[in-house]
Specification:
8% of the residues lie in helices and 42% in strands. With 452 residues, it is mostly beta strands. The protein has a single domain, classed as Beta Barrel (Porin). The strands form two sheets. The chain has a 16-stranded antiparallel beta barrel. A two-stranded antiparallel sheet has the order 9-10. A hairpin with a 2-residue loop joins strand 13 and strand 14. The two termini are 16 Å apart.
């Protein structure tokens, strides 16, 4: 945060050009802002792992005339959630822990997330990008509430150098901390990510090479080994550690967009990732090391025509996830290790209600299967009914009704969690799973997402 403020003050003292609005890109100065561009780049629900291509297209189309484009976004929420089981809420846009949600009914008026970002045109073929994130609702801070300092920090969510210029070449590359090119991971819902995103959307250090021409888009990424930030883990060294000291993981994605009659289009794609997060043996815990890699594949489609959007996505590990079997609790002896299988289907339609812009109405169902049939951690379903309205290109008002069936936190999903009440101080782990197949959560969500 202080880096951004000091940079802007320095630019002002040096006589930098004032910020220009998104609707005024006619002049090229040193510092500017484009709120429509920043909304697309910081949106967590659309184009979730193709931000580099969006940036190159914006540069090609003259949307980023300034040397530095500065911006950000704020997402504010009001929600009400009700669960049939004490402290077990399955809505994954909120970390499902007892540190934050007590009882069977909770309500909030909060900032879900806020970002600051900076896009710098360093040369005609080199672009720098950095993005700060404040996300108290989904921050990995064990034992802290959303008002605790561990959940109220600001981190560098993405940072990379992007090499390429679509006006000169169809090839591009980026190096740094970025999204892994695996799957679609988009949603038609206005806010709530699909279970495909929660299961397989990756974030890691690495180097990416892409090719974009006409309707074809190819990407391959060399991923840093060990346990990465999201959904990437391969063993490193003779001891199979999680230390990210070897570039031994990779992912590949290919998609093609077919032009259909009546201005319709159909994008079809497939992905492969060598090392996912689903390689850990019992006890499953975020960022632990693995004995071997577990790879995965994904296939997806995205259909658009006029006001209609339809999507589907299916992703599965090619090996079983070892930690989905619990060897230390006799009552679970019948449950074998299984593959992680996740799928999403959804659709949205933009209705004309006589307003300035259309209103998007959507429905989406997604499910991830994480355990053997009948186990407490077998699966979690999610159904989202949504409505959103964007009066401007940088502001979205939205409402959702969410139903989640099952409570399966990936941390300790099959057992082995610490005793939260210290009632068994001589027993470090409780081998009975805290997952609940019968848990049901209903949520009503209202929010605003605005970029500048």
């Amino acid at each position: 945060m202080r880096i951004y403020i000091s940079t802007l003050l320095s630019l002002t003292l040096l006589g930098a050009a004032p910020f220009s609005a998104a609707t005024d890109n006619s002049s090229s100065g040193l510092v500017g802002s484009n709120d429509a561009y920043n909304f697309k780049i910081l949106d967590h629900s659309r184009d979730t792992n193709t931000k580099q291509l969006l940036q190159l297209q914006a540069l090609r189309d003259g949307e980023l005339k300034q040397k530095i484009t500065f911006g950000g976004q704020v997402t504010a929420l009001v929600n009400y959630q009700k669960s049939n089981i004490d402290t077990k809420f399955g809505w994954l846009m909120r970390h499902p822990t007892a540190s934050n949600q007590i009882g069977k009914t909770v309500s909030e008026a909060v900032i879900h997330s806020s970002n600051l970002n900076l896009t710098a045109r360093l040369t005609e073929n080199l672009t720098g990008y950095v993005e700060l994130l404040y996300n108290p609702e989904q921050n990995f801070a064990s034992g802290s509430t959303i008002t605790g300092l561990p959940r109220n920090n600001v981190n560098m969510r993405r940072a990379y150098l992007l090499f390429g210029n679509l006006a000169d070449s169809n090839m591009y590359a980026s190096v740094g901390k970025m999204d892994i090119p695996f799957g679609l991971n988009d949603t038609v819902s206005p806010f709530t990510n699909s279970t495909n995103w929660h299961s397989f959307a990756g974030l890691a250090y690495g180097g990416l090479v892409g090719y974009a021409k006409d309707n074809l888009h190819l990407r391959v990424m060399a991923i840093q080994g060990g346990a990465q930030f999201r959904n990437a883990n391969t063993p490193v060294g003779a001891d199979n550690t999680n230390v990210p000291s070897l570039l031994n993981n990779f992912a590949f994605d290919a998609n093609y967009t077919f032009a259909l009659e009546n201005s319709g289009s159909l994008q079809a794609g497939a992905s492969y990732q060598f090392g996912t997060a689903y390689c850990q043996e019992y006890v499953v815990k975020h960022f632990r090391g693995c004995e071997d890699n577990v790879d995965a594949v994904s296939i997806y489609t995205l259909y658009k025509r006029d006001r209609l959007t339809l999507l589907s996505e299916f992703a599965e590990t090619l090996k079983v996830w070892p930690g989905t079997a619990n060897p230390n609790f006799p009552a679970y002896a019948e449950f074998e290790a299984v593959k992680n299988f996740t799928w999403t289907v959804g659709g949205s339609y933009a209705y004309d209600f006589g307003l300035k812009q259309n209103v998007d109405l959507s429905v989406e169902f997604s499910q991830y299967v994480a355990g053997d049939k009948g186990s407490p951690w077998e699966k979690q379903d999610q159904l989202v009914l949504g409505a959103s309205y964007m009066p401007e290109a940088n502001v979205k008002y939205f409402a959702e009704l969410v139903h989640a069936a099952g409570w399966v936190p990936l941390n300790f999903l099959s057992g082995g969690h610490m005793d939260p009440n210290n009632e068994q101080p001589n027993v470090p782990f409780l081998h009975e799973s805290w997952s609940e197949a019968d848990a049901k959560t209903n949520a009503i969500v209202f929010g605003v997402q605005a970029a500048f």
